[in-house]
Amino acid sequence: MKYRIGISQCSDDIWRDKQNAELRMGAYFHDNVELKFAAAYDRDERQVQQIDSLVNSGIDLLIVAPNQVQTISPAIDRAYDKGIPVIVFERKTNSEKFTAFISADNYEMGRVMGEYIVSRLHGQGHVMEIKGLEGSSPSIERHNGFMDAIKQSPGIQVVASLQGDWTEPTAYETTRQWLANHQDVRVDLVFGANDRTAMGARKAFLPLTSHLSPLFCGIDGLPGENGGIQLVRDSLLDASYIYPTHGDQIIELAVNILEGKPYEKETMLMSALVTSDNAKVLLMESEEIMRQASQLDLLHSKADNYLHKLDTQRIVNWLAIAFIILLVGVLVLFYLYHLRKIALQRERVVNTLWNMQDPSDLPCPGEATAPTTDPINLPCSEEATDSPPTQGESEGVSVSHFITRFKEAVEARLADSDVSVDDLAADMNLSRVQLYRKVKAVTGSSPVELLRTARLNRAYQLLLTTDKSVSEVAYVVGFTAPSYFTKCFKEEYGMVPGDVRK
Question: Is residue 274 part of a domain?
Fold first, then answer.
């Protein structure tokens, strides 16, 4: 059954761009899901019209982030009353007519940021607050949490609580006007309801840095270029708070509802404070996740193109030959396609065996992947079905089992510089010839080549995550000479080991 899911976003910004990409990514894992997006650009009337239009188009489920608490509720209620399941995410309404709610805890974010600000100012100082869009639940809850934390410290004075709308230009102009009328008021720290608001205020303070140089804190903590994590790392913001998007988790919830599977009525997403102490590590991790997601998106696009070409070819066949001949041709094509799938699975072993961290994150064919913390990993297995496995699928399971055994044997010997193919073969109860032929047939590489790849991958991670010297790392991963390790490392990654930490 094909499911049509309508998504009503209250606005269009980098946070929602990331979430929309995750929503599409989540839909890739369900070939019976079609997504229809709409963005209201912070306009209540526009969002109401878009929700009604999505409902009238025949959607099976509505996912909505309400612009404001009260004004969008009637449109959501109308959808719910028509029997359409409704997932409210990130922002609340004042109605109980929804199927599920999923978000991070905005009150908790405001409270934790307030406690951080009190600690950062050592309990003494003047703070300016710039709130989010008036009437939106995240703005209300972040403000309440922030104020409740500040009230616990009499030495902290909130000199202004300005109204913003989540955008940088509005925050800039609102702050600039306030500064013009309060030139003698000292401000030690500015708390913005989100990172863009904090950055807008920062720009307004720049001309006054000769006598005013406050700290700036925000919320969102997005990864990527000019995201909150990078802004904290570069000391443009003093702190931020990760406001998780998790579009893939929202799609999973939607499918569970549509298929009648168990689900939680209310889901609170995990989030975390970002400071100068952890920004560098968080940024590195998030950029790797984004890169893997981008590769998966590209792989899906290539698969779509392939399937489109296959469909076109089938149409040509229908026009060119009689029904019986076509039926035979389809069977042949299916058989060849299945053989090709098995061949691609074997080819992916080499490309992913030493580099992948998450088996669901397949890289694009022909593109290199950065090493992960696990030097050996398996390629993605075929998705489980209710039907019995075919001969080709059984062969794929056998190959996967063999590679798992080989992986365990290599990992156990990774630091042993004297390990040989004979040793690996003995560990697997095989002869040297049997091991060599099997590994060569499955991966196209020899056991020695794969052992070296695993060692280099582990070395890459040690260089990233420890302060060991290049020589120490070389010996830890089983190389007998640092010079030979450096030569192999440069051949594998195009740079010398010392460049990794740069």
Answer: no
Looking at residue 58, which CATH number applies to its domain?
3.40.50.2300
What is the per-residue pLDDT across 386-441, written as a single tens digit (0 to 9) for each? 445 555 555 556 777 788 888 888 888 888 888 888 888 888 888 989 888 988 88
Angle at alpha carbon of residue 468, lines to 463 and 471, rounded to 5°: 90
Instruction: Please list, in sequence order, all residues whose beta carbon lies within 8 angstroms of the beta carbon of residue 310, skipping any fewer than 6 positions away.
Output: 333, 337
Alpha helices in 364-481 (DSSP H): 391-412, 421-427, 432-443, 447-465, 470-476
- Does 141 map to a domain? yes
Which single residue is written with the structure tokens 């196209």? 444
For the purposes of burial, counting CB atoms within 10 Å of the CB of 287, is it exposed (0-12), middle (13-18) or buried (19 or more)?
middle
Among residues 121, 116, 114, which one has the least CA distance to residue 142?
114
- Report the domain count for the chain: 3
Residue 28 forms part of a structural domain: yes
Distance (Å, rounded) from C-alpha 142 to C-alpha 103? 13
pLDDT 10s digits, 100-114: 999 999 999 999 999
In a domain, 359, yes or no: yes
Kindly state whether residues 300 and 215 are assigned to the same domain.
no
The model's pTM: 0.57
